[in-house]
Design a protein that fits this description.
Blueprint: E1 10-13, H1 17-20, H2 22-26, E2 31-37, H3 40-43, H4 46-57, E3 60-67, H5 73-86, E4 90-95, H6 97-111, E5 131-135, E6 147-152, E7 157-162, E8 170-173, H7 183-202, H8 208-223, H9 225-230, H10 235-255, H11 259-271, H12 275-293, H13 295-305, H14 310-321, H15 329-339, H16 354-364
Parallel strand pairs: 1-8, 2-3, 2-4, 4-5, 5-8
Antiparallel strand pairs: 6-7
Helix pairs in contact: 5-6, 7-8, 7-10, 7-12, 8-10, 11-12, 11-15, 12-13, 12-14, 12-16, 15-16
Bound molecules: NADP nicotinamide-adenine-dinucleotide phosphate and fe (iii) ion.
NADP nicotinamide-adenine-dinucleotide phosphate is lined by residues 37-41, 44, 69-70, 95-98, 101, 136-137, 139-142, 145, 147, 149, 158, 177-178, 180-181, 185, 189, 192, 275-276.
């Protein structure tokens, strides 16, 4: 058997885990840059919990709270300039995938001079600061991945910086911060995690380790479907979602994502559809397509879901997402042309052509 698996991030989980693991933060440096979105870290208690622990550790910090959803290249260069001025020596990210991904790019740009045109080229030095991540959505798994996904206006899509330098040092998983997360964002992010694990199993780079993590993650996420439908989201359910999305992050850190994410990026870039929702809108049609090419693979995935058929599984995802957006013919042609350029397309055990991607959009948005 051949295996190539890496997961260097230390994960601690549980209510009040920042406080109960204060020593992990104490070891990281003397002054932190705390990267957050505009509001949620302040309102859900995570920022206060973090700053209290830093103060009791005798550490100082500066807060950069300007991260928008789907962070831009301008935003991470601005954040890095701020970090340099503040003379910080470690980085803390608190928030959903957007602040977490932005914090990784800010870290890289604080330590290394990288011109904008070289940001996504993949040749970086070795300098990086330690990072502590606190996910406050349960979806992206960014707390355990080496990816920073940014809005790339030049290419009119989302593009990732991918380097092992960007694995966070420590991830603190506390589901209590999610108790006020809206049902819509909870569903969209859960569907992102589901898509990560399913795409991980469809990936050409899938291994026994990644499949084992993905299978557990899919089965946990599917066990939450009823709670997601009714909105009965207890702390216990929030913990299951958070744990499953972390497992899904560990999957894609090793397998990457597939054409589903590539197709979703245009929906986000051009139509402002939330990232997880964008994946969920195209995932069912892709699974039906793969079933015609590799039924044993789909059967293996299906066995983890508890659903009897791929159609039933897809219908459940569709039910969670509600009414679909309408796409024009011209949009579908444009988006197919963009998606086929993504390297994710070739990362799948079933590679699709541009006309096939167009058919997938048509089936998804008929
Ligand atoms: P997000 O853009 O980080 O956050 C969505 C919204 O939820 C924001 O308005 C945010 O408010 C709010 N929010 C976050 N936590 C909250 C909480 N606990 N309570 C209440 N509101 C809360 O959304 P996301 O889906 O988590 O992340 C999407 C991004 O992650 C995309 O850019 C996507 O490309 C990327 N992604 C990265 C990876 C990876 O491996 N690195 C994988 C998948 C996706 P504030 O702005 O006020 O915080
Ligand atoms: Fe994703």
């Amino acid at each position: 058997m051949k295996l190539n698996y890496l997961m260097p991030t230390k994960v601690v989980m549980g209510v009040d885990c920042i406080k109960s693991n204060a020593d992990l933060l104490a070891a990281m440096g003397s002054k932190a840059l705390i990267v957050t979105g505009k509001h949620s870290a302040k309102s859900n208690g995570s920022l206060d919990d973090m700053t209290e622990v830093l103060k009791s550790n005798g550490q100082t910090f500066s807060v950069y709270d300007k991260i928008m959803s789907n962070p831009t290249i301008d935003c991470v260069y601005d954040g890095a300039n701020f970090a340099k001025q503040e003379k910080i020596d470690f980085i803390i990210a608190i928030g959903g995938g957007s602040p977490m991904d932005a914090a990784k790019a800010i870290n890289l740009l604080t330590c290394q001079d990288i011109p904008r045109e070289e940001l996504f080229l993949g040749s970086y030095g070795s300098e990086i600061l330690p990072m502590a991540f606190v996910p406050t959505t349960a979806g992206t798994g960014s707390e355990v991945t080496q990816y920073s996904i940014l809005t790339n206006d030049k290419a009119e899509t989302k593009t990732s910086i991918a380097t092992p330098l960007l694995f966070p040092t420590v991830a603190f998983l506390d589901a209590k911060y999610m108790m006020g997360l809206s049902l819509t964002t909870t569903i969209n992010t859960a569907v992102d995690a589901l898509s990560h694990s399913v795409e991980g199993m469809l990936s050409a780079r899938a291994s026994d380790v990644s499949d084992t993590l993905a299978a557990r993650s899919i089965s946990l996420l599917c066990s939450c479907f009823d709670a997601l439908k009714t909105g009965a989201l207890s702390l216990e359910i929030r913990e299951v979602l958070l744990y499953a999305s972390m497992l899904a992050g560990m999957v894609i850190a090793n397998t990457g994502t597939t054409v589903v994410h590539a197709m979703g990026y245009s929906l986000t870039y051009f139509r402002d559809v939330d990232h997880g929702r964008a994946n969920g809108l195209v995932l069912p049609a892709f699974l039906e397509f793969v079933q015609t090419k590799n039924k044993p693979l789909i059967d293996k995935i299906l066995a983890t879901t508890g659903f009897a058929s791929v159609t039933e599984f897809g219908n459940q995802i569709t039910l969670l997402l509600g009414e679909r957006e309408h796409l024009s013919k011209e949009e579908m042609v444009l988006f197919s042309g963009k998606a086929v350029l993504s390297k994710n397309v070739h990362n799948c055990s079933v590679v699709v052509s541009e006309p096939e991607i167009l058919t997938l959009y048509q089936k998804s948005f008929a």
